[in-house]
Structures are given as structure tokens and as C-alpha cells.
Design goal:
Layout: H1 3-23, H2 29-40, H3 43-51, H4 62-71, H5 75-91
Helix pairs in contact: 1-2, 1-4, 4-5
Amino acid sequence: MPVAGAAGFGACAAAGMYWLTRRRYELRAEAAALAAIAWSGCGCFVWDAAGGHATFLSFSFAPWLTYFIHRGEDVVREAAAVGGLLLLTLVEGGTYPL
């Protein structure tokens, strides 16, 4: 996998975890940043990217899926976001996360 692709998944994972922990769980910025670093830098993503197991990198969308599933403000918009993320997961080759 190209470095830019792996970095993109890492950035998506970090942003998703930061957003989830700030909005849903109402953590302080420092704690949310620590959670984002831990999630995006965990061995699962690093080793899968290094080993060429791109089908597992779509697990980086999990915080975004969790956020949109539990948000519950505008059901139609959240359902569209979840559907779009699941479609993106499938297009990225992530059959295991589905």
C-alpha cells in the first residue's frame, strides 16, 4: 500500500476518534487527542498497512460509523452517512468490516 494511502486511513481514524470522543463522550481536548493517537497508531492499522492487508484498514471508519449511528438528530441524514461509509468500506475492499 502506498504511504499516502496508509496516511489517509490514519488521518481518517484519528479525526473520527477525536470527533467521537469530543462530541459523543464529551471528553476534554487532551483526552480526545490521546484517544485519537492511540486509535490511529494502534498496531492493527500499522501492521496491516505495512503487511499489505488493505482489507482491514477500513476499520478506521469505525469511530465515524459509531458517531453517526448514535447521533440521532436527523435520522435520514445519519442513515445516509452510515450508508455512504459502508459503501466506501466496500469499495475500499474492506469486506471484513462489513
